[in-house]
Design goal:
Layout: E1 2-4, E2 10-16, E3 19-20, H1 21-31, E4 47-48, E5 51-57, E6 66-69, E7 76-79
Antiparallel strand pairs: 1-2, 2-5, 3-4, 6-7
Length: 80
């Protein structure tokens, strides 16, 4: 979950109590619903020890901009 520290930065922390990779996948999907989480089926039953990640700054991906020709006006527009 985001931790707004008053400096204009989003810092994230996550505490995992330990279980299998499938439980971690579920926790990540709950805490980061707008992000993709992909785990190989063969890894889901692997046991993980408890861990905690604190005050991590994640960089948002840059949007992909592309140029296309508008059918309405015939000019090139940047999208994305």
């Amino acid at each position: 979950m985001p931790d707004f520290n008053g400096l204009g930065l989003n810092l994230y922390s996550l505490k995992f109590e330990g279980h299998d990779v499938q439980a971690l996948e579920k926790k990540l999907k709950i805490n980061f619903p707008d992000d993709n989480v992909v785990i190989a089926r063969s890894a889901k039953s692997v046991r993980l020890d408890a861990f905690e990640v604190r005050n991590v700054r994640l960089q948002e991906p840059r949007s992909r901009k592309s140029s296309r020709t508008c059918k309405g006006c015939g000019r090139s527009h940047t999208t994305g």
